[in-house]
Amino acid sequence: MALSDLVRNIEGYVNRRNIVRRREQGWLPRITPYMGYGNTHQLRVLARAVMAPPPEQRLPSDVLAKIGLTAENQTAARAAFWDAVAKADAAALEAQRGWNQFFTTQVGFVRVEVEIGGRTYTTRTDRQGYVDLVIENHSLEPGIHDVVLTPAAGEPATAQVTILSPEVRRGIVSDIDDTILVTWLPRAALASWNSFVKHTNSRQPVPHMAQFYRALREGSEETPVFYLSTGAWNTYDTLRAFMKKSGFPVGPMLMTDWGPTPTGLFRSGQEHKKTQLRNLMIMFPQIEWVLIGDDGQHDPLIYDEVAREHPSRVRAIALRELGPVEQVLAHGSTDPAETNRRESDIENAGVPVVRGRDGLLLMSAWKRRLGTLPLSETRL
């Protein structure tokens, strides 16, 4: 038996034991919704089922009576109390240690009903508890729609899907780590510190990157932004909170699951990014993309390869250049992890590549290289 198979079996055994124990404690499957996306013919619904404690329903009347509340005021008191609890829980979630996000008990192969646009579809989670459902001929108009997912024996949850109009001609794909969020990946020790130990609300955005993204979308707010990362889905909620707090545009996140696979102990981050990029190009054949990443990992090579395969589908590549200290922290050398490809074939073939240490320098490089900044004003 391969080592990866052994680790997967151990992981599965521990998770099954945890499910049994949680059920005995009254826990039920809960859906963690992720933002999905689609075109006017096809959409992708993303979510995960994990075990969670049942929600508190109400405060006992005798408790409220003891503090002097009359019957007619008790309903309002309960509502105010649980509203305060919810706000406290939200603040605690935002400030929790990063490692708390990774201790979940996923529910594999559970039946889930998906309701959208007046229709109901039935699916099951995969081994790791994920829902990844593609729906054809959904008849939804462009815009943001709610999807209700209900697991067997669990409470319903609402996800969102954004349906892009066939008229949308430009889009952005952005890396997360060291592109919009300072994490110093992939060096294991510092990655672990930033992901597992630091409080989730203490993470810092890359300077002025949100301003760069807003400038790209000025006058064309329908321009979609997809965040593509090799990070774990467990960090989804805190990343969404980080993006909202830092002023980044909202968009679907395409992440992955850490852990063993049938072919190895770890998933290939490069293949994940390539696959997701190709899927976007297939689903949205009319969109020309701006690819944004950094030179501390494999983004230059990944984007170059995709652009060489589809040169007419890539408007430009923007790379955030890590400083010497960041490069050392990222991979142990002052040089970029991959060649910066200043003389790459794809640049010679007409796909511009702009570089800068932060958002302001990228904006300046973009204006010098392409002449104008908002995507609404650039020509196809």
State the CATH superfamily name of the largest domain: HAD superfamily/HAD-like
Low-confidence blocks of residues: 56-60, 88-102, 186-200, 261-266
Q: What class, by secondary structure content?
A: alpha/beta
What is the CATH architecture annotation of the largest domain? 3-Layer(aba) Sandwich
What is the CATH T-level topology of the largest domain? Rossmann fold
List the keywords.
380 residues, alpha/beta, Immunoglobulin-like, Rossmann fold, 2 domains, 7-stranded mixed β-sheet, 6-stranded parallel β-sheet, globular
Topology:
Elements: H1 3-24, E1 28-38, E2 42-52, H2 61-66, H3 71-94, E3 111-116, E4 119-124, E5 130-136, E6 143-151, E7 157-163, E8 170-174, H4 188-197, H5 209-216, E9 225-232, H6 236-246, E10 253-256, H7 269-283, E11 288-294, H8 299-309, E12 314-320, H9 324-331, H10 345-348, E13 353-356, H11 359-370
Parallel strand pairs: 1-7, 8-9, 8-11, 9-10, 11-12, 12-13
Antiparallel strand pairs: 1-2, 2-5, 3-4, 3-6, 6-7
Short description:
The protein is α/β, with parallel strands linked by helices. It contains 11 helices and 13 strands.
